[in-house]
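Suppose you are handed a protein chain with no further information: no name, no annotation, nothing but its sequence. What can you learn? This example shows the usual starting point.
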Amino acid sequence: VGEETGETSNILAQLATFFEEEVGRATENLTSVIEPVIMLIIGAAVGFFAISMVQPMYSMLGGL
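A reasonable first move is to predict its three-dimensional structure. Written in structure tokens, the prediction is:
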């Protein structure tokens, strides 16, 4: 169709814009899903680290 009317460059530019917007939306959706998961993982790691530091202290105090 674009070749017949001489509008190939315009049609390709519109397609490029469409796909760029689609990739942007997909990236945004993926980011909004991954962000809370990463926060939970980091929170669990920090909690594990804190417990691993405090637990031996309580054990030593219990032995006194």
